[in-house]
Write a structure and sequence with these properties.
Structural class: mainly alpha
Order of helices and strands: HHHEEHHHH
Strand content: 5-15%
Shape: elongated
Number of strands: 2
Strand order of the largest sheet: 1-2
Largest sheet: 2 strands, antiparallel
CATH topology: Arc Repressor Mutant, subunit A
Distance between the termini: 17 Å
Number of domains: 1
């Protein structure tokens, strides 16, 4: 996504280029791109000048959107998703702590944009 952000408004980017630059297998990138396309964050164009591009500008894409698209909802422990699976949920002293950590993590990712990640890459 960072490579797509850096290439925003410059035309589609082919996965072979991203694979070489990021030293990640093309097959793995294809799996990720399918999930990003399902989440409507990325689109593809076929043909000799084809490739992948962002559906919106990098400053409008939250890091949390990317995480949700690739990994699914951010759930740190199972009982936060399904409290009924644990009989100790009402007396658990750590559940509230985990809920707070999860909420803070989500808030952090929701406040960061793809643009901020791309800018970080440019500084390195």
């Amino acid at each position: 996504m960072v490579d797509l952000a850096l290439n925003y408004n410059k035309g589609p980017l082919i996965l072979n280029v991203v694979s070489r630059q990021e030293k990640v297998s093309k097959k793995y990138l294809e799996q990720i791109v399918r999930r990003l396309m399902s989440a409507h964050l990325v689109k593809s164009v076929r043909g000799p000048k084809g490739g992948y591009y962002l559906t919106k500008s990098p400053e409008k894409i939250k890091v949390l959107d990317i995480i949700n698209a690739i990994e699914g909802p951010l759930i740190l422990i199972d009982c936060l998703k399904n409290p009924n699976q644990c009989s100790l949920v009402k007396s658990c002293v750590t559940r509230a702590y985990w809920q707070e950590v999860q909420n803070n993590l989500k808030k952090t990712f929701a406040n960061k944009t793809l643009k901020s990640l791309a800018e970080r890459k440019l500084r390195t």
